[in-house]
Amino acid sequence: MRGILKNWHRYLLWLTVSFFLWAWIITLITDAPAGKKVVLFADVPAMDREGLSAALEAELPEGIRFVETRLFTDDLFSPADILKGDLFIVSAKQAEGFLPGFLPLDPGFSDRPLYASEGKVYGVCVFDEAAGIQTATPFVAYVPGETYFLFFNADSRHLGAWNGSADRAAVRVAQTLLSLP
Residue 107 contacts by C-beta under 8 Å, 6 or more apart in sequence? Predict the structure, then answer.
């Protein structure tokens, strides 16, 4: 017993390394490569990730294994991971700071209100209380009084002809999102 107490720091180190090693192995086994999933980031206070993912996976394009939904705060200490997202739900107040990474859209993409800046359209409205637009509200807790838009990452692997990528999975997932009540 004295040996254990004397070397407690070694056991603590072993336990810590073991925990992170197993977490990495489990993530490696269960996560899909970027080309096999669509990632949606939302800058909202709270979100039912599993419920929203299930709703968006109802009509997955071929070759896509799942839709991963994440909050911006999940990757607060790793902003590079946020840039790997395919779709983003961002408030109008915060959108300007992200515009360089967003893909300009065709103004005819949706009949909903659009987010435009400097003559280009970038986003589609997903939440605006005053206009009566409430998309995916059973799953996403928007801040009352703010307007939120859906944006596309210009570097997404899933935008098809929009940016020369292989498939249009992010576009299909976005259309499914826009159809949610």
Answer: 114, 121
Tokens for 90?
């961002």
- At 123-181, the pLDDT tens digits run 999 999 999 999 999 999 999 999 999 999 998 988 887 777 778 889 999 999 999 98
| Four-CA torsion 134, 135, 140, 144, nearest 10 degrees | -20
b/e per residue, 25-62, with b = 16+ CB within 10 A? eeeeeeeeeeeebbbbbbbbeebebeebbebbeeebee
Per-residue confidence (pLDDT) for residue 31, from 0 to 100: 65
Q: Which domain holds residue 10?
A: 1-30
Of the candidates 180, 162, 151, the residue with the CA atom closest to the CA atom of residue 85: 151
DSSP at 162: G
Q: In whole angstroms, what is the distance from residue 138 CA to residue 154 CA?
A: 28
Cα–Cα distance for residue pair 15/23, rounded to 1 Å: 12
Three-state secondary structure call for residue 51: helix
Q: Which is nearest to 73 in space by CA: 50, 42, 37, 31?
A: 42
User: Are 24 and 89 members of one domain?
Assistant: no
Q: Are residues 154 and 82 in the same domain?
A: yes
Domain total of the chain: 2
Distance from C-alpha of 147 to C-alpha of 157, rounded to nearest angstrom: 27
45 vs 3, higher pLDDT: 45
